[in-house]
Every structure is written in structure tokens, then in C-alpha cells.
Amino acid sequence: MTERTEKGRVRLQTQDWVLSLILPGLGHISRGWWGKGLLFLGPVMLLGATLGLGVSKQRFAWLAGPPKYWVSTTIMLVLLFLLWTWALYDLWRMVRAEQEEQYVRGYWQMASRRFSKDPKGIVGLVIILLVVHVALFAPFLVRNDPIKMDLRNFLGRPSPLHPLGQDNFGRDVLDRIIYGSRVALGIGAVATILNMFLGGFLGLLGGYFRGMTDAVFMRLLEVVNSIPFLVLVLLILSVWREGGILSLMVILGIFGLQPARIIRSEVLSVREQDYVLSAKSVGVSTWRIIMKYVLPNAIASLLVVTTMSIGVNIIVVAGLSFLGFGVRPPIPSWGAMLQEAQEYMRTAWWMAVYPGLCIIITVFGFNILGDSLRDVLDPRLK
Amino acid sequence: MFGYTVRRLVQMVFVLFALTLLIFALLKLMPGDPAKVMAGLGARIETIEAIRVKLGLDRPWPVQYWRLISGLFNGELEAMTYHKPVWTVILERLPATFELGAFALIIALVVSIPAGMLSAIYRNSVLDYTVTTVALMGISIPVFWLALMLMLVFGVILRVLPVSGRGTAIETVVGRWSFVTWDGFRHLIIPSVALASVQMAMNARLTRASMLEVLQQEYIKTARAKGLKERVVLVKHAFRNALAPVVTNVGMQVGTLVAGAVLTETTTAWPGIGRLMIEAISRRDQAVVFGLALFLAAIYMVSYIVVDLLYAYIDPRITYD
Questions:
Q1: H or E stretch including B172?
Q2: Closest to A323 (Cβ–Cβ): which among B213, B258, B278?
Q3: Which among A229, A235, A345 has CB closest to B255?
Q4: Pick from B95, B99, B101: which is nearest to B171 by CA?
Q5: What kind and span of H or E run contains A212?
Q6: What is the pTM of this model?
Q7: Tell me: the pLDDT tens digits for B290-302?
Q8: Sign of dihedral through CA atoms B64, B66, B72, B74?
Q9: DSSP character for B75?
Q10: What whole-number distance in Å separates Cα of residue A209 and Cα of residue A270?
Q11: What ipTM is given for this predicted complex?
Q12: Chain A contacts in chain B segment 228-267 (CB below 8 A)
């Protein structure tokens, strides 16, 4: 099948790489690959604009005097570097692919091809990337310190200076929302990744080996699942005097055990398949069977569950903070902002409307991405 | 089937026992002293100590644990900060949550089932895209924010509905109910619509998926082939079969309803058991937290068992023995 029409050498012309070095994506465009070119150009423009803002506010680490915003700055530089090299590499690859036609496509290649034709997933991905962008470069985007109060202008209406208004301490709502995205995404992502690893591990081993470990694990799961999740988390959180971001991550990470369930059931069905049996019969080691046969089959549903549960976790964290059990003020988080807004409903609607919209947009992004991933990766799932 | 039910109930007792240990441990680890909360600010140390003795907080942990457990069973356990038996506190608040949950469920089902059906029947139409998008939005909206927005629009701006609280309630033999009065009913609208939103979205998605699956079955093809009217095919053959998973899933959603109730009740000042939970935790009323958590867990687990039994009843192919 993989017949090569021409064994040409890779011909990347000078103008290609020069253009690509000037701005990632220009090289693609000059060769006529507009879609790919814009795919590189867009993020570069966005990062560039953010960088400009950061520099103009003198918040770019070395301009801010002592290294203060070095996390954002470093990430910015790394991302720019990656974009540049990746664009060059991609151009080289595409030029090569043009010369040697490729026929065989793997599972992931087919999946990504299906994904690129699904507007739902792309919209979701774009939303998520934008929110991640805001979270990463929050210091470059805000105008003021989100914790700094301005008591003379408390409950200020939305105005050109404060587009989304000011809260009960005169803090800018937009700035607080921007910083709040860090809390929401940070907790959502870390907790989900933690319980993906934990749950994936337990589910994988439990589902494959059955026996004692599995039985104990399932009983534990039953106890934890016997009480509404929110109530359990409320009880556990009350043990900590200071709610705090770290305890939220850990608690949600340990007790959100849905991934374990799903992985386990997936593994249970895979281990009965003929190819696992045949691998066993020719003496493949257990570890190798798990890594090479069972895990890859379970990973699609794991990915879907992960995406969706980041969204769920963001809502749960917002709910807990709203109840006063999660992230405590003055740290800006969307849930806590809504809690403060509740008292001022009659006078300051902007305090309640905008943080909520941000939660919805972000969670919606994760939900439609998850929905589309499910269609793309595993058409069997509903 | 009887044997299975008994087995599940026995299993449930064990799980509940494990849960009592977990909750008791958490209660003991919580900072804050219920005696101090009860004595109020500026109380003398002797007063606090006296209350501690009265509540039995000075006894060893196993004794305290036994006190809570046995008190729950003979109904004599006093709430620490409410000056009433725990069961009285819980049962007083239960009707409020029950009517809220029931209304939310009715609203959710009345909207979501037709929506899901129609969107499956007219697959890939504008209607379908609207329903699926709105449903995805629905699972992305935090219930408490929706409640806030409804309060803002209908209570503060339009002034057509009361903003919060429960309104007039009528005392009956089985608790105080507010939906029977006009005022109480008006108060019920905002919280139950907010609470219904998630259920609505989930059930619409579920109904759509299950209807799509049914519509691909052979018997639908047969029904069409023998010349039945499309209406009859859809209503008599497809609808009934598609509904089974939706109905059983309602039982599974009790947990979501309870979690939603905690948030909705706190937002709209609805005096139900959800708000009681938050209150009791912040007052460090260990007796109420303990009783309520077990009560919720028991409801939750019984509803799971009922779902499983219902499933076997609806689909005779399933047996558990």
C-alpha cells in the first residue's frame, strides 16, 4: 500500500524558512496552505498582543524590577519559542509529505481528521484555549491589582474605566474575573488530572486483576457514593479551617471517583476479548498486556471523561465557594464573587451576572469539547 | 427477586455502618466547638464546660459515637443547638425540600421528555440543534447562578415573583406545605425552575439518545412496513420503549437533586433540609449533621435499589437472582 510515487529529497526553499522565521505561518501561506498558516498566525498574534500589553504595563518580568511575574513571562517565552519551531517543523513535514504520498493512517490521525470536521469540538477547544490564555497571562491583561480596594467608588456602575463595574469594595469586576479564571481552571484541571491518574490506576488494576483489591476498592467506592457528593465534600472541607485552593484540589482529586468506575468497566470488557486471550496464551507478561492492549483501549473513554469532569469540577468548586466552603475571599474566584454579589442583588446586578457568565462559557467549552471527543474517539459511546 | 432485595438491604446496612464511622471521624476532626457556639459570644468558661458535659462532649469518643447512633434509633437524640430532637428538626424541614424537589422533577420531565423526543424524531433539523445546544448549556449552568438570575429578572426588575423565602404555608397532619396556597406557590416557582434546569438538560439528552436508538430497531421498521401511521409508530412503538431508561434514570438523579437543593435553598432562602445541612455544619451541630447525612444517604441508597428493581420490572429480560 505504501507505494512512493517519487523518492524526492526534502526541498525546503530559503524563502519558506525565512518567512516562517519572521512570523510562524507566513511560510505556509506563501505556499498556499492558508488554513494551516492562519492556525499558526492567530495564536502568534494573540500572544504578541498579550505580550505588548504586558510590556506596556511594565509587568513583563524583567521590566517589573524584581522578578515578580516570572511564571507568566516564562510561559509566554516558551510558548512563543514552541510556536516558532513547530511552525518550521510543520512546514518541513508538509513539504515532505507533498513529495512522498502517504496512504496509511493510524487511529489518532483518523480521529484528528474527524475532529477537524466537527464545528462543535472546535468551538469548544477555542473557548478553552482562550480561557487558558486569560488564566496564564492574567497579570498582563488586568489593569489593577484585583485585591486592591477603592472604597470611594464601591458598587461603581459599568463605565469605560471599569467595563464590568466595581464590587462592594470598589474592586474592578473584570480584573477579578480574569484572576478568577486561574482558580477555576487550576483547581478544575489539577483535581481532574489527579483523579484521572488515581482512578485510572485503581480502575485498571481492579478491573484487570479483580480479586481482593478490586473488592475492597469497590466497597470503598460504594461508601463514598452512598452520600451525595456535594454533601460529602462539604463535610470534608469543614475539617480544614482555611478552605484554600490546595485542599480543594486534593479532596476533589481523591473523591471524584467516576473515572475509576468508567475505566474499570471498560477494562472488564477488554480483558475478555480474544486478542488479550491470545496474547496471554503466547506468554506475554501481564504488565505488557495491561500497557499494550488494555490501556490503549480504555484511553479514549478516559479522555472524554476527563474533559467533561473538568467542567463538572469547575461548577462544584464554584458551588462550594458560593456556599463559603471553598476558595475564601479575598482570593478572587468566580464562586466567591457570586456569594458576595448575592447581598447586593438589588443595587449591583453586574456583580452577579458576569462571573456567572464566565462559569457558563468555560464549562460549556469543556462540555461541547467532551461531547465532540466522544463522537470522534469512540463512536460506540452514547 | 425477594432474595435479591433482601441481599441489597443487608448490604445497605453495612455501607451505612461504614458511613457512620466516616462521618463521625470527620465530625471529630472539624475545628470549632458546638458548646462554644451554643453558649454564644463572651460566655464564661464554666458555662461552656457545663454545656460540654450536658452534650456529652467530654466523654470518650466511642461513648459519644454510641450516643449518636442509639439516639438516632430511639429518637431521643437532641440536636445540640436547636433545642429539639434531631428527627423533629429534620422532619420539620423535610416537606419544604420534598415539594421543591417534586416540583422541579415535574417541570424537568414535562419539558425534557417532549423536547428529547422531538429532537430525535426531527434529527439534524434546526429544532434538534436548538434542543441539543440548549441542553448542553443547561448542564453548564450552575443552579445557584440561575436562581440568582431568575430572582434578579422576575423579582427585582419585573417584580412579578417574590424574591426569596417560602411564603405562607399551611400546617397539616403530615407537615407544613406551602404549594397549596397561592402565595406559597408563587414562592416555589423560582427555586424549582432553577433546580429543574440540570435535570431538564440531562433528561432531554437521555431521551434523545434513547429515542434515536429505539428508532433504529427492527420492530420500528416492521411497524412502518405494515403500514401503520407514523403517529402510531412513534407513540405506541417507539415512545414507550424509549421511555424506560429515562424513567429509571430519574431515580439515579436523586443525588443531583439533593446537591442542587443545597445550593438552590441557600440561594433563595428556602427553609429545607439542604439549607439545614449548611446551617448545621456552620453551627457545628454534630447531632444534626450526623442524623441528616445518614438520612440523606439512606434515601439515596433506597432510591438506587428501587431503580434496580424497577428496571427488572420494566424489562423482563433482566433478572438478578
A1: strand B170-172
A2: B278
A3: A229
A4: B95
A5: helix A211-225
A6: 0.88
A7: 999 999 988 888 8
A8: negative
A9: T
A10: 12
A11: 0.88
A12: 255, 258-259, 262-263, 266-267
